[in-house]
Write a structure and sequence with these properties.
Elements lengths: L1 E13 L4 E13 L8 H4 L3 E8 L3 E5 L2 E5 L4 E8 L9 E9 L15 E8 L3 E8 L7 E11 L6 E13 L12 H7 L15 H8 L15 H6 L16 H6 L16 H7 L15 H8 L15 H8 L15 H7 L20 H6 L3 H14 L7
Parallel strand pairs: 1-3, 5-11
Antiparallel strand pairs: 1-2, 3-6, 4-5, 6-9, 7-8, 7-10, 10-11
Helix pairs in contact: 9-11
Length: 396
């Protein structure tokens, strides 16, 4: 006679990433032996009490679904416990099977098991039994596998109990979510097999891994405050806090509207952090608009790139360098006592020392004669200088 008792069996899915435990209700057939009936209290924790999917074939668990590799051996480990308490010295032999279908009886001569193991247990002894699924045994797709324990001593190898394990068989070289990342790479990267964009940052997993080198499991790989997708849009590296290595973090450059991917945003010869120290605009090649690039002012002439007229002589730095040949850092280039700007307005040469004509006066006192000797081009230049510098007549 058989008795049936309901017990709860834990099915444990294992992978390299996590372990998921599912509790399954089972119906247990209790076999009365001799004059000693099977007690429900004794049977409640007997038979197959735990199942785990392990081995090289155990890929990962996603949405409570165990994935296994088709071309690798998968081990189904069943924890079994002796069925009926009779005597501490009694040993019983059982069959533990892994099958595609649930069979109430087991006939070894017509065995269609995926795997079967014989185990001898002492009264209420617990032991793990490994049932191996050979490589290529299961086709791709979902399979319901039955893990069953049978009692041979009945003569009919009657099933003690069973549970089922659902596995989805996939190929390592496949790409279930079509995100450009192979299934085996998804597992190694920690991404999801069924979700193209695991971290939901707008970049598919395959693009993050193969193109940008970012982490497909986090929104901001380098934790610099700029999401990976925004880094891509700004031409920065998602895995570098300071893409252009200019000592300014990408987020700061983006907020300040400088280029986080170029050390010198305005291509004026001064790196962005240097411009910040000098007070110049890293987005403008000529911050003060005097006709000289910032780097030229700093590196060549020693002028102030933030001031139009460094020596305050009435001529812009650009005019002094490009038109009159005067020193933009010296208000009186020829040292005659008359500022360069006034000499230009007076028509004298600001680059030549005072003329010794016996009148005791410098160039400034002889402005009329010299101005009258200017060529038409020089006269035009003097007029333009007045306009540019905002000077009128002898207002210096």
């Amino acid at each position: 006679m058989f008795k049936y008792a309901t017990l709860r069996v834990r099915v444990v899915f294992r992978s390299r990433r996590r372990v998921v435990t599912v509790v399954v209700a089972l119906v247990v057939a209790g076999l009365a032996v001799g004059a000693v009936p099977a007690a429900v209290g004794d049977d409640a924790d007997s038979g197959v009490v735990d199942v785990a999917v392990t081995g090289e074939g155990a890929a990962t668990v996603e949405n409570d679904q165990q994935f296994v590799w088709r071309d690798r051996q998968t081990d189904v480990v069943a924890t079994v416990v002796d069925y009926v308490r009779q005597s501490d010295s009694r040993y019983d032999t059982y069959w533990v099977r892994l099958t595609r279908d649930g069979d109430r009886e087991y006939q070894p001569r017509t065995d269609d098991s995926i795997a079967v193991e014989e185990v001898t247990l002492r009264e209420l002894e617990e032991r793990n039994v490994t049932l191996s699924v050979p490589s290529g045994e299961l086709s791709t797709g979902v399979h319901e596998l039955h893990v069953s324990m049978y009692e041979p001593s009945t003569g009919a190898n009657v099933r003690v109990n069973e549970t089922t394990v659902s596995v989805r068989v996939v190929k390592e070289s496949g790409d279930l979510d079509r995100d450009g990342l192979r299934n085996v790479d998804e597992v190694s990267e920690g991404t999801e097999l069924l979700t193209a964009d695991t971290d939901e940052d707008g970049l598919e997993d395959g693009v993050e891994v193969h193109v940008f080198g970012s982490d497909p499991t986090v929104v901001d790989t380098d934790d610099d405050g700029v999401p990976d997708a925004d880094e891509v849009q700004n031409a920065t590296a998602p895995d570098l806090v300071d893409t252009d290595d200019d000592s300014l973090v990408d987020l700061g450059e983006i907020l300040n509207r400088t280029s986080p991917s170029a050390e010198d945003t305005d291509l004026d010869g001064l790196p962005d952090p240097v411009e910040r120290e000098l007070g110049t605009d890293p987005r403008e090649r000529d911050t003060d608009g005097d006709g000289l690039a910032d780097a030229v002012e700093v590196g060549v002439y020693g002028t102030d790139p933030t001031a139009t007229d460094t020596d305050d002589d009435g001529l812009t730095d650009g005019e002094e360098v490009q038109r009159f040949g005067t020193d933009p850092t010296d208000a009186d280039t020829d040292g005659d006592g008359t500022p360069d700007g006034r000499e230009v307005l007076a028509g004298t040469d600001p680059t030549e020392a005072p003329t010794d004509d016996g009148d005791g006066g410098g160039d400034g006192s002889e402005s009329g004669a010299l101005f009258g000797a200017l060529t038409p081009v020089q006269e035009l230049g003097a007029v333009l200088a007045r306009v540019v510098t905002g000077m009128v007549g002898g207002g210096l």
